[in-house]
Amino acid sequence: MDNVDKATRSRVMARVHSKNAVPELIVRRGLFDRKFRYRLHGALPGKPDLVFRKYRAVIFVHGCFWHGHDCPQFRLPASNRDYWVQKIERNRVADQKSRAALKALGWRVYVVWECAIRGKGSNAEAALNSAAKWLRSVSVN
Ligand SMILES: [Zn+2]
Hints:
Shape: globular
Bound molecules: zinc ion
Largest sheet: 4 strands, mixed
Structural class: alpha+beta
Mean pLDDT: 89
Number of strands: 4
Radius of gyration: 16 Å
Low-confidence stretches: none
């Protein structure tokens, strides 16, 4: 199943993981500053990054690489493309399943993409405002 040599894989993973950690922290802090309270990595389908019980809502912060975002920040490594294509496709399928399962349980689902938070042309404040607006878009008792 795995035809990528270990060194290449850990190099790519290290790069991608460190990239992913930061956007999630920015989203957490930004929404906390906007007075939202949440739990992290809830025991819900797909383990959403942030869970807002009061709003019956969850937010995923997705790295563009791992989740195959159709955006300029998504670039396949030059080597072992088949491996990465398959891996990312599995992630996308898993994302769709999680989303469907969450919706079936009555949760609202929102995705903040890494490219909206950091990178060329991104505007993290605007992305956070959009997420906040979305959270508040349902009246909650
Ligand atoms: Zn993206």
